[in-house]
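F.,

This is the one I mentioned.
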């Protein structure tokens, strides 16, 4: 009996050490898969796909709930096939996906007990999140739920100064999060959005919320939009597991106040809109996306790249094309992305390094004249190869007697120029980004 209680006690202690506490080590352990994964798909989808002017349309155009009802009544995504979405994400090299279960307009893609404002009551007549989860899981992609803290549908939400109304809203919001984390099996990320002004932190009853979340899904990662400070030595309990810069790549590794790196994820639109926008053709190129992904990884970050399916449930054609092109590159070069992070060497002018143990990956993203200079690496590299085809790359000193010994450093060594012929491959072609793998001497 005594023996049993010792076992039980040590189990409770060790699991609370792993999941309950919020130490740096605990968060590093929890986020390990996330830091390895590096690339995910963000999906903004809801009845706002019908007006097709982005997910803020109700608020921006001051559409009353009554007038907005027409989109609810018409929502019938006849071509929704999340298996295709999941295949696309996998092909693009994405390891996790985060979908809007409820956005700011309050509409729920999932079947919630606590509201009728949900997909099952529209002509869609089914729980669209259930199908999503099944399809993405089947492809081995980890599942993230975006859930909007803000709600333009619930009258109680608008009454944040009336204590009773507000408590009712908080209760509703907590119960929906509970449903999401109870009814769909293991969920890998809870992505709540967002806090501002007084609608932040404990106004959401954030400690209570996170306690529940961690009880229901001990391994889950939570984003940083409940409002807590994650930079302090001991971050706020509800500060979340990773930072989330939006539409901008941070200029350097993100660190806490003691200088320790914090996991982070850039969330980025493929054009300029999160939700489907029929007239927005301002798409980034595959080259832009790969460049950005490498940039993030070299600073210990992830990229969560958005698609906005239309009212039929189809991911826009241009988005698919770009993701497929990104996928081709990832197919050949993913070694330099998954499980990689910042390198011990300074950023070179021709691109970026990433590193995994004693493997350094040199990504040549920029136009470069002549050989590729590896500054300060003379004598440090055991072997070099091209990641895409595993062909040998021979290191050399500069082969120009006018330059030799004068204009380059004593410790510099060179790779051949990796760029394809610029006359035949446009420099903005994704395939022009070549990666060399350098194995360091022990
Ligand atoms: C902002 C926007 C929201 C979008 C989110 C993505 O919070 O309000 O529409 O879902 O950013 O990061």
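My design for it:
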């Amino acid at each position: 009996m005594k023996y049993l209680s010792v076992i039980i006690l040590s189990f409770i202690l060790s699991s609370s050490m792993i999941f309950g506490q919020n130490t740096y080590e605990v968060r590093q352990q929890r986020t390990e898969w996330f830091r390895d994964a590096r690339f995910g798909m963000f999906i903004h989808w809801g009845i706002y796909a019908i007006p097709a002017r982005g997910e803020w349309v109700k608020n921006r155009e001051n559409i009353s709930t009554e007038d907005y009802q027409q989109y609810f009544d018409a929502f019938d995504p006849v071509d929704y096939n999340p298996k295709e979405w999941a295949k696309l994400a996998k092909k693009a090299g994405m390891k996790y996906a985060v979908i809007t279960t409820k956005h700011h307009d309050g509409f729920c893609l999932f079947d919630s007990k606590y509201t009728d404002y949900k997909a099952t009551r529209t002509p869609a007549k089914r729980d669209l999140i259930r199908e999503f989860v099944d399809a993405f899981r089947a492809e081995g992609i980890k599942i993230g739920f975006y859930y909007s803290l803000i709600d333009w549908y619930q009258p109680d939400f608008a009454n944040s100064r009336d204590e009773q109304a507000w408590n009712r809203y908080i209760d509703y919001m907590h119960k929906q999060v509970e449903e999401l984390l109870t009814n769909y099996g293991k969920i890998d990320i809870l992505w709540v959005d967002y806090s501002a002004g007084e609608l932040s932190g404990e106004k959401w009853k954030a400690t209570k919320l996170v306690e529940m979340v961690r009880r229901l899904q001990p391994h889950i990662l939570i984003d940083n939009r409940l409002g807590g400070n994650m930079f302090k030595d001991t971050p706020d309990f509800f500060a979340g597991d990773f930072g989330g810069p939006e539409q901008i790549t941070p200029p350097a590794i993100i660190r806490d106040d003691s200088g320790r790196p914090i996991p982070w994820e850039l969330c980025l639109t493929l054009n300029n809109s999160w939700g489907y926008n029929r007239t927005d053709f301002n798409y980034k190129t595959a080259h832009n996306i790969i460049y950005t992904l490498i940039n993030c990884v070299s600073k210990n970050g992830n990229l969560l790249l958005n698609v906005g399916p239309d009212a039929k449930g189809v991911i826009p054609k241009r988005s698919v094309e770009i993701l497929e092109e990104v996928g081709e590159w990832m197919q050949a070069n993913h070694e330099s992305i998954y499980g990689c992070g910042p390198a011990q060497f300074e950023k070179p002018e021709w691109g970026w390094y990433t590193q995994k143990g004693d493997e350094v990956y040199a990504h040549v993203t920029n136009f470069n004249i002549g050989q590729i200079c590896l500054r300060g690496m003379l004598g440090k590299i055991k072997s070099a190869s091209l990641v895409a085809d595993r062909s040998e790359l021979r290191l050399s000193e500069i082969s120009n007697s006018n330059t030799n010994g004068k204009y380059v450093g004593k410790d510099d060594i060179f790779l051949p120029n990796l760029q394809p012929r610029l006359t035949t491959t446009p420099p903005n072609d994704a395939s022009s980004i070549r990666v060399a793998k350098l194995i360091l001497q022990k």
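The pocket of alpha-D-glucopyranose is lined by residues 44, 55-56, 193-194, 246, 267, 274 (CB under 6 Å).

Talk soon.
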